Amino acid sequence: MPKATKKVSAKVEVETNEVSLLMQQNVVHALAYFPYLIGAVSMHFLWRTNKQAAQHHIMYSWIIAVAAIIGHIFLTGSILWWMIFPAYMIGSGFLAWKAYNGEEVKIEILDSVEEKISNSVKK
Fold it and tell me: Number of H helices and number of E strands within the chain?
């Protein structure tokens, strides 16, 4: 007859620091580039990270999305109309990738537009 054995299980508690996705700065910066103002608007209201750095990416996303929407409106019926969406998606994806990796995103034209918008809002 086999002997009865007792199973002893040790309870191990592991401390985890669960961090929400919206508290990770690189994720918020990358999600700001989600297409057609969805990412910019949602990250504007939902962010929980460094506001100044996130605002930079949100403004870039707004500017690029508005430019793409205006391009779609004015170039309807043109062959260029078909090229706007892929260019916008590739550009947004590239900027999101750079933002996620923590690289500095600087585009001179967008910086000047962002500065003009921020100056007009401050007045």
Answer: 5, 0
The answer to the question of residue 60 being in a domain is: yes
Q: Is 5 within a domain?
A: no
Count of the separate structural domains present in the chain: 1
Per-residue pLDDT of 34-83, as tens digits, reads: 888 888 888 877 766 667 778 888 888 898 999 999 988 888 888 888 88
Kindly state whether residue 116 falls inside one of the protein's structural domains. yes
Instruction: Report if residue 71 sits inside a domain.
Output: yes
How many Cβ atoms sit within 10 Å of the Cβ of residue 67? 16
For residue 6, what are the CA distances in angstroms to 3, 9, 11? 10, 10, 16
- Residues 81-114 have pLDDT tens digits of 888 889 999 999 999 999 999 888 888 888 888 8
Residue 117's closest CA among 49, 42, 67, 50? Answer: 67
Distance from C-alpha of 81 to C-alpha of 8, rounded to nearest angstrom: 69
| Distance between CA atoms of residues 62 and 69, nearest Å | 10
